[in-house]
């Protein structure tokens, strides 16, 4: 009787090494955080419905106490995809810098008495997530002030960027390159839900967003790229947001 040997044993050492090198290697991260320590903290606050206007007014008046300690990228009020919510992004050069900022805030009497002590009772919950820009994305500035933003969040299947990274990039680029939205940045989670990616988009208005989205649905390149990416997707959520008056990214 002919005995079949395992395929790996039929390969000569050099061939086996070449075959192993050709196999995709799962990476634990997207890459740039290993080269650069800069990361972005996403924060989402849910506000008591009867305190929404008061919270935004207080934050508008006192946010300078917070930005004195670290850089604010943007601060938005969620209009669609969640009520009575704000979303903000903070930039840090390292985890040690963030720890120093948090320690300094805890010892800042103005921040505590004028803002935190008044703001906390207005909130029902707080959530944060540490993210890095994906390797092919850079943080962009909007073409002009006065637009609206969409935060599209994708929960990808386990496996990491080595599995779904190329497909996700192709899907985002298929929308960005033809102008179906202006990509402000694409981010990959590090702390918080894993295998989550976010795309932050800018549009002239909510109506302009609806118009270009309709056009994208008829673009064969977009349809093909999305079909290739969606096989790696577990769920998706998006929010349409308006920048607050004090937001650096307007």
Automatic annotation (TrEMBL):
<dbReference type="Pfam" id="PF07978">
    <property type="entry name" value="NIPSNAP"/>
</dbReference>
<dbReference type="GO" id="GO:0000423">
    <property type="term" value="P:mitophagy"/>
</dbReference>
<dbReference type="InterPro" id="IPR051557">
    <property type="entry name" value="NipSnap_domain"/>
</dbReference>
<feature type="domain" description="NIPSNAP">
    <location>
        <begin position="40"/>
        <end position="138"/>
    </location>
</feature>
<protein>
    <submittedName>
        <fullName>Protein NipSnap homolog 3A</fullName>
    </submittedName>
</protein>
<dbReference type="InterPro" id="IPR011008">
    <property type="entry name" value="Dimeric_a/b-barrel"/>
</dbReference>
<comment type="similarity">
    <text>Belongs to the NipSnap family.</text>
</comment>
<keyword id="KW-0732">Signal</keyword>
<feature type="domain" description="NIPSNAP">
    <location>
        <begin position="149"/>
        <end position="248"/>
    </location>
</feature>
<dbReference type="GO" id="GO:0005739">
    <property type="term" value="C:mitochondrion"/>
</dbReference>
<feature type="signal peptide">
    <location>
        <begin position="1"/>
        <end position="22"/>
    </location>
</feature>
<dbReference type="InterPro" id="IPR012577">
    <property type="entry name" value="NIPSNAP"/>
</dbReference>
């Amino acid at each position: 009787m002919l005995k079949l040997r395992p395929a790996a044993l039929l390969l000569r050492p050099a061939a086996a090494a070449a075959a192993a090198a050709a196999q995709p290697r799962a990476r634990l991260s997207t890459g740039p955080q290993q080269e650069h320590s800069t990361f972005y903290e996403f924060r989402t606050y849910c506000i008591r419905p009867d305190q929404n206007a008061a919270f935004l007014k207080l934050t508008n008046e006192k946010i300078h106490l917070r930005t004195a300690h670290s850089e604010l990228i943007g601060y938005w009020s969620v209009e669609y995809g969640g009520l009575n919510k704000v979303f903000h992004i903070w930039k840090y050069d390292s985890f040690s810098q963030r720890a120093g900022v948090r320690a300094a805030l805890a010892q800042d009497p103005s921040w505590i008495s004028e803002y935190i002590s008044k703001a906390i009772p207005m909130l029902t919950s707080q959530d944060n997530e540490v993210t890095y820009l994906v390797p092919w994305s850079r943080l962009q500035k909007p073409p002009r002030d006065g637009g609206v933003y969409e935060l599209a969040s994708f929960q990808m299947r386990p496996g990491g960027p080595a599995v779904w990274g190329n497909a996700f990039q192709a899907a985002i680029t298929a929308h960005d390159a033809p102008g179906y939205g202006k990509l402000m940045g694409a981010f990959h989670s590090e702390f918080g839900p894993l295998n989550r990616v976010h795309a932050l988009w800018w549009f002239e208005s909510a109506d302009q967003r609806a118009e270009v989205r309709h056009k994208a649905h008829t673009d064969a390149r977009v349809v093909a790229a999305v079909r290739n990416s969606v096989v790696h997707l577990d769920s998706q959520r998006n929010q349409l947001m308006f920048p607050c008056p004090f937001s650096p990214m307007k």
